[in-house]
Amino acid sequence: MTAAQFEVRVEANRRLSGGYFLLELAAAAPTPVADAVPGQFVMLRGEWGRELLNPRAFSILDAPDATHFSILAKAYGEGTRRLKRVEPGDRLVTTGPLGAAFPRPGAGVRDLLVAGGVGLPPLHFFARMAHRAGLSGQVEMYYGGRDRDDLVLLDDLAAWGVVTNLATEDGSAGVRGYVTAALAPRLDAAARTGEAVRVLACGPTPMLAAVRRLVLERGVQAFLCLEENMACGFGVCLGCAVPVYGAKPYRYCCTDGPVFDAREVRWP
Amino acid sequence: MTEGIDLTTSCGPIALRTPVLAASGCFAYGQQFAAFTDLRALGGISTKGISPLPRFGNPLPRICETTGGMLNSIGLENVGVEAFLRDKLPFLRDLGVSVWVNFFGVDFETYVDCARQLSEGQGIDALEMNISCPNIKKGGIEFGTVPEVAHRLTRACVEVSRVPIIVKLSPNVSDIVAMADAVQKAGAAGVSLINTITGMAIDVRTRRPKIATTYGGLSGPAIKPIALRMVHQVARALPELPICGMGGILSGEDALEFLMAGAHCVQVGTANFAEPGAGVRITEELRTLLRTLGFASARAAIGSLQPHAAEPEYLAESPWSSS
Questions:
Q1: I need a surface site. Which of A161, A223, A232, B261 has the fewest CB within 10 A?
Q2: Helix and strand totals (H; E) in chain B
């Protein structure tokens, strides 16, 4: 699938709890983002003039038809602050779809989707695709955040019949603690019963590092969706290097990833 | 409507169909851009800097954005001469645009080796010698900042190269004209002005530099006024030395400023990250702007800067001056 650069208009900017916002974006004509799959991303840039040069990378939350897609984000720096302020009708330049996706649901293996905070979108998209394919019984969601407000779009997961396990740092929803506190016993249970499970995870780097340690200790297959600073998103700036084991010390988050096999990532 | 504008130009012995090239380090080896833009509409492409052996680059984080620009410390990651000639050059050669191969070494001998090996490649129009990257540790700084060292290195590379050598100079010097003069006298066919300016940014939450190597190279529109000043200084002092100008060009008007200051052609760098078609758009904007301003050709605009009118005499002789 070849990426393209095209203009979109903001159809809706929905404010969710926890400071999250969901942008529904529409192109004038069909775009290749229509064929995007969970884990792929787009680069987005508003009319930011000369002060703020580079687009920002966002996982695709959904691509319901040939001209529409959506992203979920939180204001963190100047780029996301500006995106949070966009209004219906505003124009954004999009490049995408970019990157390598999560593997598709496989026969005979249960996918444990592990999301932390702003890492929800690719896994929410995965759950949605599983639902559309009649496979929602084959996925389980493990979703962690700071508090109840930090967990969004839970109604969708319930509507799709996806078993969802929550974790919050303050205990206001689900188990108290990090999402790994909910995941670890599940992995141990699978090991005891010989159940085939696979972990697909996205979230802050410390969370992904913790997930990686859990799965490596237990020999569970896992794919991590990473985030790095990137200026271009298509393999040119070389800013988004990811340390890996293998012939070369680095691969690229944008073109080799953002989804990497947990065994490949060279983290402590 | 703008068909009548002649965009052809040259950088010394290198003929160019248009004055707008893609800049080294911002265009990889070209292939990634084919999906987004018509590469044949560019004047040329300067490749990612090539070293004799492959390099894997610097630790993370490597880039961060700053006001009107970005800092990078990629570490000159590249595939090395052998893989470049075998895997990357054929694609560039087949485009029919001017192919400039940016190169560097880690010491005197590897610079010369690299120039010799690359110039054997078929379809290379120029070698762009990078003596200015702030992101390699060993010896690199002297090549780009000491005129005598730059002179010796340039002469040694010119002697072994079958194609013209353009020297890409560092702006991190106190006298850019002295550097340009030194490489011109050593046989450089031209100079590229400017590479990135060393800079720094700090994350106050973590109290760490925003890039792993602490300092990085600043690019983007933030550096354009400095780049223009340096192009102008060199053009005035060394009128016979062809200059390829660069530094924060985002529009046709930016490109024209560089031509007026004395550049014979320009490179577009950082703009390619956000907009892979930037070079082609800028070329079209330049064409339209030249016509609007009454230039018959791009060549006519080169060095066309007009000085401000001299100070009128009645102001020079102030009644308050004590003579």
A1: A161
A2: 12, 16
Question: Residue B313 pLDDT more than 90?
Answer: no
The predicted structure's pLDDT at residue B2: 46
In a domain, A246, yes or no: no
Residue A79 and residue A123 in one domain: no
A172 and chain B in contact, CB less than 8 A: no
Mean of the per-residue pLDDT values for chain A? 96
Angle at A141 (CA atoms; ends A140, A147), nearest 5 degrees: 155
Same domain flag for A187 and A82:
no
Q: Does A244 lie at the interface with B, CB-CB under 8 angstroms? A: no
Annotate B173-200 with b (16+ C-beta within 10 A) or e (fewer): beebbebbbbbbebbbbbbbbbbbbbbe
The whole-number pLDDT of residue B287 equals 97
User: Does one domain contain both A114 and A183?
Assistant: yes
Q: Is B92 exposed, middle or buried (0-12, 13-18, 19+ CB in 10 A)?
A: buried
Optimal mutation site among B63, B64, B74, B224, interface A, most CBs of chain A within 10 A = B63
Taken in order of first residue, the domains within chain B and their CATH numbers are 9-315 (3.20.20.70)
Average pLDDT over residues A75-93: 96
Question: 10 Å Cβ neighbour count for A4?
Answer: 16
DSSP state of A258: B
Buried b (16+ CB within 10 A) or exposed e, A42-74: bbbbbebebebbbbbbbbbbbbeeebbbbbbbe
The CATH number covering residue A12 comes to 2.40.30.10
| B139, pLDDT greater than 60 | no
CA distance A139 to A143: 13
Q: In this predicted model, what pLDDT tens digit does every residue of B60-111 receive, in sequence order?
A: 999 999 999 999 999 999 999 999 999 999 999 999 999 999 999 988 999 9
Is the pLDDT confidence value at B317 over 70? no
Catalytic, out of B133, B157, B244, B265: B133
Task: List chain A residues with CB under 8 Å of B67.
Answer: 51
A4:B250 CB<8 A? no
**Domain edge (last residue) among A39, A73, A98:** A98
User: Across-strand partners of B46?
Assistant: B100
Could you give the 3-state DSSP secondary structure of residue B3? coil
B33 vs B135: which has the higher pLDDT? B33
List C-alpha distances in Å: B265 to B17, B128, B200, B245, B279.
10, 14, 30, 6, 12
Against a cut of 0.90, is the pTM above it? yes
Distance of CA B262 to the CA centre of its chain: 14
User: Among B296, B19, B67, which residue's Cα sits nearest to residue B199?
Assistant: B67
Expressed as residue numbers, the domain containing A161 is 110-225
Question: CA A181 → CA A167, A174, B96, B167, distances in Å?
Answer: 8, 11, 59, 58
Residue A216's φ and ψ, nearest 5 degrees, are: -65, -40
Is position A198 within any domain? yes
What is d(CA A41, CA A258) in angstroms, rounded to the nearest whole number? 8
Measured at the CA of B81, the angle between CA B76 and CA B82, to 5 degrees, comes to: 135
Summarize pLDDT for B168-184 with one digit per residue, the tens: 999 999 999 999 999 99
